[in-house]
User: Fold these one by one.
Assistant:
Number 1:
Amino acid sequence: MIPHSPVYLVGPLLLLGGAATAAQQPAGARQVFDGTMLPGVQVVTFEHSDALFPVNRVLRGKAVQPLPPAAMQLKNVRFPSRGAEYDLFDYLADNRVAGLLILKDGKVVLEDYELGAGPDSHWISFSMAKSISSTLVGAALKQGLIASLDDPLTRYLPQLKGGAYEGVSIRNILQMASGVKWDETYTDPRSDRRKLLDIQLEEKPGGILDYMNGRSRVGPPGSIWNYSTGESFVVGALLEAATHKPLATYLSETLWSPLGMEQDATWWVESPGGMGLAGSGLGATLRDYGRLGLLVQRDGFIDGEQIVPVGWFEQAGKAQTIGGKPVDYGYLWWPIPAGDPVHRGAFEARGIFGQHMYINPREKVVIVVLSARPKPDAALSPLDDAPFFAAVVKALQ
């Protein structure tokens, strides 16, 4: 610390000398979705997602699950992307990676932090939270709190009767196949996603479910695939209704504490003390995201007990058939498209701005990438992710 320089606490940020530079101030939520943040502002914002919306805390337990180093440390890999060849250092620099963790057989073969991030940084998940929520649905199913994926949502959320989600099953909504009309475009203020963001900013209890249930239908349930963050928020309402617990509490009791996380996490809520937002806004450390990945890679076992139904992740992580057509989407997880055979059976959690949790059960590899890419649209990322993941897996065989 600079001698004789006072320290002021502004939200979650420590500011030296009583004055904050522009790079120290987090952006607002609309600025995030517009993708109009200076690089330093973006990093601060992603490290302090609890400044964007109200949060509930996800409490860790007393014991910490170790992540021991592997005997062999990964130094570099080379991979093709968009007609050229790149290496590990290109991937880190060009994709603005803040944290990279690679696990093989449960051991760390590479752990790297950039952009000022570190082991204590609580980085925003964005839509990786959807896949974690899917895992919680599997846990609730195993516990008997949800009877069947083919149950109608209205069995647990009777307030949805007579609206857009009448007749929609839990399976439909996990597959993003409700038939409810939705526009996910992040940068368009007229899109459904941005209208939902405006409702989030109002922090009005019940506002999100009211908006979702007032949407129109474009097809019967199970007939059309349409990616919708709003739909994943409905999953959060389902979980809270089925478990009779706040989403963060259920995550803590079911996964966070039993998995031996190093630190508490935070998770966005609709309003102070309100509904948990299952589709986004988890804030956690790189290593704790890695522990979640290991749970999935190990088929949902914690201390010898399987906390999801047998075969859950095999089903949740594979492409589905919607309306008679194959779709590269599972139960809120993204299968790695057919291509390099090393990806057989692999899938990932994915979030905008370059967040990834890659799971390869066959090769016992987990890769977590936390990034601050310039725009939310994945198509604008400089380097492709799947070829990089493939090169890592092959290097560890």
Number 2:
Amino acid sequence: MPEPTTAIVRLAPEWEQSESRVFCDELEAISRQVPREAVIHAGRNLIFRHRVGAGEVAVKRFPVSGGRRLVYRLRTSKAVRAFDHASRLLALGIGTPRPLAAAEVRRGGALLASFYCSEFVPTFREARSLKVAGAPDRAELLGLLGEFVGRLHESGVLHRDLTSGNVLLVPYPGKPDAVAFRLVDINRMRFGRVSVRAGLANLAQLRLQDGGVLLSGYCRTRNLVASRVAPYYRFRLGLRSAVQALKERTRPLRRRFGL
């Protein structure tokens, strides 16, 4: 059986240097000995930070197993999609950590894993923190978040994994009391016109039931009447909660079969 090989598929211009290339070539080995303090998330996908040169980068490892390896002979890897999507988002003026590299580990053409490297964001809150009723500036931030998602959809961008953990609140550059929004986990996105119904269904993925502040912010950006779209939005919220509950119950079985 041939040995796995690592190929750098995407590389940002500022990473066109030997040190960065060596790091990318060694990603598989590095990912197998990440110190506990460097782990950001450990689950089906591993996210960790690592120092490269003078700064730290965030790395996400997407493993591929079973029948999915056949799929990725024809489909673009998650790491490459994340890199390309990040580039498109930044070109549209939408916040996301700066993409640095995408690498793939293959054996005989079969994809074993892919790695996405991006700018490391040291200070942030997840939007899920706004689920807590007493969160600081909750009402204001919910309204701003709604406006942000509205601008996203008006720009023709649909984040298909728009959970409250995939939107980061980071300090706004030069304005210590303000926040900016950054999208992460961006390998599943669709670019093109976003209809009102598709947008409301997407907004409901955040599952931030807040009494209407989020929806009002969204409607302000898209020039919608909140009272008219609220019934459909509430329906999508209920449906989303039911689907999420089913996913949680079936997660062990799905992971067992690599789904």
Number 3:
Amino acid sequence: MLRKAILAAAESPRMQRGVRRHGMRLGAARFVAGESLDQAVGVLRGLNDKGLLANTTLLGEGVNDETETRVVVESYKEILDRIAAEKLGVNVALKLTHLGLGFDEQFARANIGELVAHAAQLGNFVRLDMEESAFVDATLRVYRSLREEGHENVGTVLQSYLYRTPGDLEALLDLSPNLRFVKGAYLEPPNLAYPEKSFVDSAYASLVERSLSAGGFTAIATHDTALIAQAIAHAKANGIGRDRFQFQMLYGVRGKLQLDLVAKGYDVLVATPYGPDWYRYLMRRLAERPANVLFIAKNMIRR
């Protein structure tokens, strides 16, 4: 119930105005690498200095204006250029609704094709984040079209809480895909998604094992130590090299675990978003872990 309430609040304009007024001071900065690219670069360099890889995202989604969308495209080119100039171990993840998917799939496809090509020129990689279930088919169509066009430097995301995901995975395997697996952070109805955590976790483990065994590259995006241990055991038992998978975690969440895995010789990438439009991202992080809610609440009391 708490998760549903927080996710509902994520779409509340009134709540957004209140949280945005004080959120960075109350603790949002734990999960967001600032509101500007300059601020984010400093955080990203600090992660690299610790042996961690990273991706970054200009926070935002649901853009319904072509002019505004083109501003986003140019902003991502600037991000990619800055990463190259700073020689950072950082790639980019983005939402297709930030590039116009909500109103014109072909327009979004053209925008992301432009960015993937720009990233390729710089030797970088772009991940298409997954959004609500209504956008899954379109996102997967765009991903497939990019790969079939010859773009190797692009990946996407699958969500274990959706019943459909095992079929989606099977349909992608012919591409030797680069896939990130997450549990899912949107409020979906029980006819589309598992309502119980235990089923989501079980589905997650099965998807990761299938992906690892099938080829391609598997990004295991979880902070769950049991699921991490299960993935490591499966890789060892089946002779799957460490170059075939990577652990991915969120900036501000389980930093010690991230460094422990690096010390054991595993690649760890930290998802490190930035930007002024951080409200919905923060609310989804709060919904995922009650401890995050307590962190913000404690900062409110101290303030």
Number 4:
Amino acid sequence: MATYTLRTDGGARGNPGPGGAGFVLEDETGAIVRGGGRYLGSVTNNIAEYEALIWGLRTALDHGVTDLRVCADSELVVRQINGQYRVKNEGLKPLFASAKALLARFASVRVVHVRREQNAAADALANEAMDSRSTCGDGVDPDHGGQPALF
């Protein structure tokens, strides 16, 4: 089976402050097959990073992906997901649990830390969502009954 790549990024302007989550899902050739950005309201950057991961994982599952490589530029999220750091923040615990439950649904999955510039497309979608205070892209939007988000 082909391994897809999920690139996720979240951010907040201020911490907490207006936040956004973005992701792109790439097929085995590197072509983007799905992507989205969503405005989150006032959140911390770590919450935004987890929201991006969860949305991207849901979209990958919806797309039928079974083998996945997740690339995130949040060292905290990657290390927590991989069991290197404990989740101490009470606000992150339910997001961590949701992400772990979704990750368990893939036949194979790897979560790796990448440099920010390797996540430029996901970062752009998160920023577009923050700028427009809306949802953009074609990812499955959990706030709209699982329907694809529209441009």
